[in-house]
């Protein structure tokens, strides 16, 4: 419990769809970036304020290895980790990938490690897919309740409901960060090309 980690669901720069889930010494709270506020600057400022042990970011943090001349990499669309998890191509996500890589480098320059994660896999591990994960807002409450029921009772949720799928994904990214801190992550992909931690 004596740690700080942050999960970030990174949305479009000014859309208001970026959410941070912050685990701070046994308490969880959320920060949602307001519409027309730069999500990247806001996230960087929040990370600098909390100075977590590590940050888990829901966005690609590398390109397929073929673009970097990594031996054995021939796929122009997907990394090994993307293929393993059936994740979207970093190339398809384009601008989001570029922003996420830039943000991660800025955070790392502050001596804070950043890891790529994929909340859908943590959602599967938490049993959310069978109760409507991302199938519509009417399923939000069931997924919230499931996550709260599985949370360690010593962990306190400070700020109300997870009011959107962005909140849920940020929370799932934070759970992956906690699994990593406990030495229990699942790791996908090739280290040379880029790993996804769940």
From the 3D structure, determine the CATH topology: Nucleotidyltransferase, domain 5
Helix amount = 25-40%
Provide mean pLDDT, rounded.
95
CATH class, anyone? Alpha Beta
Oligomer state of the chains in this structure: single chain
Task: Give Rg in angstroms.
Answer: 16 Å
Distance between the first and last residues' Cα: 19 Å
Explain how this protein is built.
The structure is a single chain. By secondary structure, the chain is α/β, with parallel strands linked by helices. It is 36% helix and 18% strand. The protein has a single domain (4-197), classed as Nucleotidyltransferase, domain 5 (2-Layer Sandwich). The protein has helices at residues 39-50, 80-85, 90-93, 95-108, 119-125, 140-150, 165-181, and strands at 4-9, 19-24, 27-32, 54-57, 114-116, 156-157, 187-190, 194-197. The chain has a six-stranded mixed beta sheet. A two-stranded antiparallel ribbon has the order 7-8. Strand 2 (19-24) and strand 3 (27-32) form a beta hairpin. Helix 1 (39-50) runs parallel beside helix 4 (95-108). It is globular, with a radius of gyration of 16 Å.
Question: What keyword list fits this structure?
Answer:
198 residues, alpha/beta, Nucleotidyltransferase, domain 5, six-stranded mixed sheet, two-stranded antiparallel ribbon
SSE arrangement:
Blueprint: E1 4-9, E2 19-24, E3 27-32, H1 39-50, E4 54-57, H2 80-85, H3 90-93, H4 95-108, E5 114-116, H5 119-125, H6 140-150, E6 156-157, H7 165-181, E7 187-190, E8 194-197
Parallel strand pairs: 1-4, 3-6, 4-5
Antiparallel strand pairs: 1-2, 2-3, 7-8
Helix pairs in contact: 1-4, 5-7
